[in-house]
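SAMPLE LOG
Freezer: B-3
Tube label: C17
Construct: single chain, 189 aa
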Amino acid sequence: MALDRQTLDMTGARSGELYEHTLQMGDETITLANIATMAIETQQFQPYDMPRNRMRQRVALVASSFAFIGGALCFAWWGLSAAPLVSSIAAASILITLLFLGLLARAVWLSHKISRVQDYYRLSIGASDGRSIALVDNSRPMLEQVRDLVRRKIDTRDHTTTGSFDLNTDTVDLNDPTATAASEQPTLT
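STRUCTURE (predicted):
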């Protein structure tokens, strides 16, 4: 049975478009001239801390508690009845104890998965009007590449370079006319 898992797109945008004067990330659009701050932050989240997984953990703990009580009662009955080692009450006692151990192991495993912490990175872009938009990924170098691209576009006032980025595929596609014009220049020998 697969566990429910949070994904990074639950906490911010995963793709965007860079136009002449604006940056589109998810449903948010921001003017490049309006960008006041850009910061890459390291944050953590628990990917398996989901309501259904917590419910599965509670069910496993409750069932293991009942199995423990049942196993203890079966062992007590077996001991008080002076039944032989090979009997139905002995088999039931052992099976219920094994069920208890299995359910307890499942509950401990779920607890370990739920408490697991994973790093992710957030590129926060703040606008001078107070808005903030975020781009999230588990790769800091990818976010640094997007940040540097936006910063270069702002610093050089380059209105010709456009492009798009998709963090799901770790790609940045640029349409840089100055680079193609420079490559089309004839070289002198």
